[in-house]
Amino acid sequence: MAAAEQEFDCDPSPLATLRHSTSHVMAQAVKRLYPDVKVAIGPAIEDGFYYDFAKAEPFTPEDLERISKVMAEIIKADVPFERQEMARADAIAFFRERGEGFKVEILEGIAADRVSLYRQGDFIDLCRGPHVPSTGAIKAFKLLSTSGAYWRGDERNAMLQRIYGTAWATQDELDKYLWRLEEAKKRDHRKLGRELDLFDFYDVAPGAPFWLPNGMILVRELEKFARESLDLHGYQEISTPMLVNKRLWEQSGHWEHYQDNMFKLEVEGEIFSLKPMNCPESTYVYKRALRSYRDLPLRYSEMGRDHRNERSGTLTGLVRVRQFTQDDAHIYCRPDQLQDEITALLRLVQEWYKVFTLEPSFKLATRPESYLGTVAQWDAAEQALHDALRANGIAYEINAGDGAFYGPKIDIHVEDVLGRLWQIATIQADLTMLPERFQLEYIDADGQPKRPVTIHRAIFGSYERFIGIVTEHYAGAFPTWLAPVQARVLPISEKHAAYGRAVHGKLRGARVRAELDDRNEKLGYRIRDAQLRKVPYMLVVGEREAQDGTVSVRLRTGEDLKAIPFDRVLADFSREISSREPVLTVGRS
Ligand SMILES: [Zn+2]
Ligand SMILES: [Zn+2]
Question: How much is the pLDDT for 434?
Fold first, then answer.
């Protein structure tokens, strides 16, 4: 969609209409306060709106306060929004006369003969509408932030000043939204990543994290969790090369359709690429031997390190990266095994997410308009997916026509504690892409060669993204099995250092990630420090504890469980960690 049409295309839902109307009121207030400023565009966006202005200096927080005050006056005056139609040529003349060059440029890019304008009081804007009847309909708004933004998002164009705001139907809803925003800021994984020394980013490697020792513990624990589970469920792990000749991508079709997202290199006169996905290479493992119907299913899992050339402007922390590690798998099965495989996969997804107290929701995406394979193949595969979902008692939505061109799929989202929805896992039935393009076969019971079905699936999605999501989900307070430091031993004073060292040593011996904090600081200071680091348990030891062989257990939540025999604490740790308890249970057995 061209930019000129985009800004003209308003979302007509009531909330978007309210927000878009608020953006007009904001522009009116800005023009009133700063008459020389030129207006660009001001659409409703998710949860709010913005408006871009041509102004030499950025808006300051004080500016936003003044603008908000004027907006409140305009709202109080309850000025009606009036629609007016004009010939496009007249509108061009109108805005040219007012010196509003951006509006002229937009109008020049529109094909229609007539356009609509909206006026409220002394402010008139080019706009398709709709709007609320009058400014008094705006009950709750807040201006949130400012940023620079290029005209039409193009860095060759003029830099404009953008003001973001939000508007809601009631003050109560606005307050709730502002709370969520505040909470999301506190939980931002980029902020927590730095504060808790999990990972960091440096501009020498945009979109690729540097994992710090604490963050690497998260990676390792997740890998361990995944491997234990996959071993149990009949997967075989493989690892395929990252740097691959373009011949492979030509065969898979990526060269034709996906080249722009791939990093390419020239090696000895030939073109290679860093793999953007692991699918085609897994076929080499499948094809190494003649497969019989009795060999299937073959489940190849891979911790696939992939690279995708995302534009640097779109990169965001761990959730939008250039380098990531998928917890990938490709399952090769007979068509009659598809339903059982999907059933097992859905069970696995539920089992995994339960460990992280994430609530999954499921969407089945069906045959799109343009597809490969036959309708009969598609119908059978879609039926298998439906049946597998039902067999697991899963409620699901249908995204009609949203399947991949090579097969239907199940997309799995999780909702975090702030009610945000993240797509993480995907289960895709591939009837044609890998099987046809790589001519995969197995010898069936009748002695004839047949094509297997491939299932592409990832449950974490990628380790990077999943760690970003759970860091925010837990607000950095990881369950003990994941926590980089699981316990801190705090001797009350120098006199108890020896007992503290003994306790620390026994914890380490039992593979508890424990630290000894015997710094010459007040106990209160050291407790607060451990809480800030979100260490689940503090074990305080003094005279009485040393005598009785106990430790005083404190939780990062501030709860004080008092003295408990150390042997019991040790046993509790082992149980809590090995069973990957989602909540803190040590000292409560
Ligand atoms: Zn408008
Ligand atoms: Zn794949």
Answer: 87
Annotated active-site residue 308? The verdict is: yes
The whole-angstrom separation of Cα 526 and Cα 540 is 10
127 CA from centroid of ligand 1 (Å): 4
Among 489, 493, 504, smallest CA distance to 542 is for 493
34, burial (CB in 10 Å: exposed 0-12, middle 13-18, buried 19+)? middle
Q: Which residues surround ligand 1, an ion (CB under 5 A)?
A: 127
For the chain, list residues with pLDDT below 70: 1-12
Residue 224 Ramachandran class (φ > 0 left, ψ -120 to 50 alpha, else beta): alpha
Nearest listed ligand to the Cα of residue 332: 2
For ligand 2, the distance from its centroid to the CA atom of residue 430, given in whole angstroms, is 9
Beta bridge partners of 407: 404
Judged by its nearest atom, the ligand closest to the C-alpha of residue 407 is 2
**Assigned token pair, 359:** 């609530």
With left for phi above 0 and alpha for psi between -120 and 50, is residue 172 left, alpha or beta?
alpha
Determine whether 326 is an active site residue.
yes
CB 453 within 8 A of CB 433: no
Q: What is d(CA 485, CA 21) in angstroms, rounded to the nearest whole number?
A: 50
For residues 443 and 463, what is the distance between their CA atoms, to the nearest angstrom?
36
Closest Cα to residue 416, out of 220, 187, 205?
187
pLDDT tens digits, one per residue of 53-105: 999 999 999 999 999 999 999 999 999 999 999 999 999 999 999 999 999 99
**Does the pTM exceed 0.85?**
no
Catalytic residue check, 409: yes
> What is the helix, strand, coil percentage profile of the chain, to 5?
40, 30, 35
Tally of helices (H runs) and strands (E runs) in the chain: 19, 28
Full strand arrangement of the beta sheet holding 396-399: 236-238, 298-307, 323-333, 453-462, 421-430, 409-415, 359-365, 396-399
User: What pLDDT does 478 receive?
Assistant: 98
Ligand nearest to the CA of 11: 1
Distance in Å, CA 17 to ligand 1 centroid: 9
Is residue 278 classed as helix, strand or coil in its secondary structure? coil
For residue 193 the two structure tokens come to 């990543």
Q: How far is the CA of 175 from the centre of ligand 1 (A)?
A: 25
Q: Check residue 4 and give its pLDDT.
A: 37
Residue 188 catalytic? no
> Is 328 designated active site?
yes
User: Which ligand approaches the C-alpha of residue 127 most closely?
Assistant: 1
Give CA–CA dist 429/441, Å, rounded. 16
Instruction: Output the pLDDT for position 111.
Output: 87
